Amino acid sequence: MGEAPFAHGIGGSADLPISPSLAIAGAVAALVVSFTVLAVAWRTPRYDEAKGERPVPPWLDGLVRSVGFRAGLRVFGFVVFAYAVTVAIFGEDLLTNPIFGIVYVWWWVGLVPLSLFLGPFWKAISPVRTINLLFAKLSGSDPEVGVFDYPRWLGHWPAALGLFAFVWLELVYPFMTELGPLRLWCAIYVAVMLVGGALFGNTFYEHADPFEVYSSLVAKLSVWGSRDGHLLLRSPLANLDTVVVRPGLVAVLAVLFGSTAFDSFRDSSSWVQYIQSTETSSYLLNNLMLVAFCVGTGLVFALGCVLTGVEVGTSRWSLPDRFAHSIVPIVVGYIAAHYLTYLVEFGQRTLIQASDPFSNGADILGTGDWSVNYWLSYHPTLLANVKVVAVVVGHVLGVVAAHDRAIKLLPQRHQLTGQLPLLMAMVAFTVGGLYLLFAA
Fold this sequence. Notes:
Largest sheet: 3 strands, antiparallel
Helix content: 55-70%
Strand order of the largest sheet: 1-3-2
């Protein structure tokens, strides 16, 4: 039961029938050319929340703002939550139990496309927000207001710790596919969220819920924005510029990017051979490497930011959080490249398993006799190109976002040269990400 049922990652280099050196060289060239073009043609800031936005049709705005629509989303989220709780408690402790796919595939990976195309999806359906709302209704209190004000210095640090706890469970813990540990983790998550909501109100979820922070950051690359409660269409990069700078933002993105990179690394032939040849505990080594990837990613990015030129009196150490939004498209691109086949193929398998949650031959959803479509895996060249393009596009968008922010923040004499350390950090991410993509 300790073996992971899901083939994390993207397959080996045989599944990527293009030249690794050519792909890496092309990606680096794309970043350098993009930066050069930006340096010549992009001299004034172009992105902020007020630029390039326009209202959606009134009927769509009215629909999204309606009580019925929002209640429907909450009901949907709670029904899925109740189903997951039921199969987690009463289902068999088998790999065919759909709870593993619900948590590790639908919840963790599925949040990315849902948030990218629909906006802050987890915030809209979050069952912990729904339960907190019901408690507030019963007690006659306001769910937006807690007993205490959420400490500003705490920022997103609880979310970063929560995300790390989840990726540790998924990627390192040897019994991640046993019901007991998964139930315990989910129970702790729900308990912490409900206590936090009671103490600090809905502000707690916005700042500290690891999945809401994760979903909301990805949603900043969607076309959906809002102002004064009204739905707007907005350029994704202008939307990205609205990421609120809070303590711990870099840590959240470092965990997301670093853990995904580690997931590729742990499947690389060199790491597998080293694990098999050493007498040191593989569990200990994987724990150390997960920490190293997450911390290392954050340090490389932070160093690239603090080495930029700033005005006298401006703290260099404030720059990493202020440039952190530029890492969001890189994270999304790499997650898309790394987990694409995993989401499509094991997402289908989870839907099939969900029709027989108690392993008694039932077909509740009518999907029990479906079969997994492996079309993507049968087209390796297309798959390889899609994954490489996802990584490159993510990094190019990151360079654009960082350049636009640099023009706003840096003194004129450092607006170009001051970006070079950050560009070098992004080149390192590109080379490392593509190398791991091929090495897995």
